[in-house]
Amino acid sequence: MTKQRVVIHADWTLGTINKNIYGHFAEHLGRCIYEGLWVGEDSPIPNTQGIRSDVLEALRKLQVPLLRWPGGCFADEYHWKDGVGPRENRKRMVNTHWGGVVENNHFGTHEFFRLCELLGAEPYICGNVGSGTVQEMSEWVEYMTFDGESPMAGWRRANGQEKPWKLQYFGVGNENWGCGGNMKPDHYANLYRNYQTYVRQYGTNKLYKIAGGANIDDYNWTDVLMREAHWLMDGLSLHYYTIPGRWEDKLPATGFDESGWFEAMQKSLFMDELVTRHSTIMDRYDPGKRVGLIVDEWGTWFLPEPGTNPGFLYQQNTMRDALVAAIHLHVFHKHCDRVQMANLAQMVNVLQAVILTEGDRMLLTPTYHVMEMFKVHQDAEALAMHGAFGEYELNGVRLPQVSVSASKKDGKVHISLANLSHTDDVELELELRGAEQAYACRGDIVAADDIGAHNTFEQPERVTKQPFEGAELADGKLQLTLPAASVVLLTLE
Ligand code: AHR
What we know:
Blueprint: E1 3-16, E2 23-25, E3 47-48, E4 51-52, H1 53-61, E5 66-69, E6 93-95, E7 101-103, H2 109-119, E8 122-127, H3 134-145, H4 151-158, E9 169-172, H5 185-197, E10 208-215, H6 219-229, E11 235-242, E12 245-246, E13 249-250, H7 258-285, E14 292-300, H8 319-334, E15 339-345, E16 355-358, E17 361-364, H9 366-374, E18 381-387, E19 391-394, E20 397-400, E21 402-409, E22 412-419, E23 426-433, E24 441-446, E25 465-468, E26 472-474, E27 477-482, E28 487-492
Helix pairs in contact: 3-4, 5-6, 6-7, 7-8, 8-9
The chain binds alpha-L-arabinofuranose (AHR).
């Protein structure tokens, strides 16, 4: 086995890793909001003001910095006024995008802010451009953030919230090239300019406005939006899902072979190219990098689990998802000068969820454990590095074998590593140059004896975080063997 050598520069930072890169997304889709997060105050499932207590406790350990809501595609058919006031009077509607089920609007604006408060997370609200009006969007912002006397502020008070909430992040529509209205970029750019004008800043509440961005590699969309409106936005979004197989012919989340594994690694690494190329376009209009690239939907998308409603997007989560998460987070760290936020899709029971629930039971997925280990990178300084990362080859296609990221904060250095190979361990030498102090090293690992390993309600702890004893530190160099298909976090302090 050839040893791979990587040099990490403790005295050369790439910028701060915005903690919002560890953001989440919860949509009115399947069992994400209802059952997954919200069970209501009268539920036999233990809850805190209607929010499941077990899920809440697990999410708190992730230090969720920010939560995007109410969608997704749902956002562009959501009418916020239906979701405030006494719950028994709230309008029932059909969730046409997701399974055609009845949405009773029991989880609305007040419940969302309560969830964010309980999580200690910043709220990120996505407004309705596709089927809503300028007035509706404007009044929602007034309802949430205006402290004075006005019709919407008065209604909020009547509904039990005296003081306005603090709301920073506001999205003006979602996927307006698709489910959010099937618009062309010029048309949406005009609508963005129009709608955002009435998204008012009240008092000291400073809004960070996010324009609906491109689908995957639609670079023209980014170009048009930046050209037509960059000075009116704080962020521009980008959506990209890792989908082994084809969009119209997805593959199952479990029971895959080496090619299903390899393809997921390859497609995850594509995020690097996407961020690089969208950023390059943004640089043309915004060389100072004021406007953030907001990757507000990312994650794996597989066939729904057999026997579940196909519109609910409920899928299992294996070691493969753990690697996908590590690769994406490393890409976001590397581009921390432009990527100011990223939101894993979705929080509970939908797509690459960190938590799955079934009745009163809950389990943590392999992705959860990676997000939990990596939380130490939040708001840390990303460190520069160079070196050799090995090769992982299948059928003549080559990928780097190891993905590495390092950051520094509060006198500690954290190095996260992922071995993409499904078969081969890799020997690594990590040299920490420019360190101001001598460090001791400890580590944690997420790994399993099978690339398809996952947690079930019968066996909820098959994949968990374990101590990693395999790294030895001498003369500023770390020697370690990184097991195949594993994710490791080393702490130097
Ligand atoms: O996350 C599921 C869906 O994927 C979202 O609603 C939509 O924005 C995207 O297409």
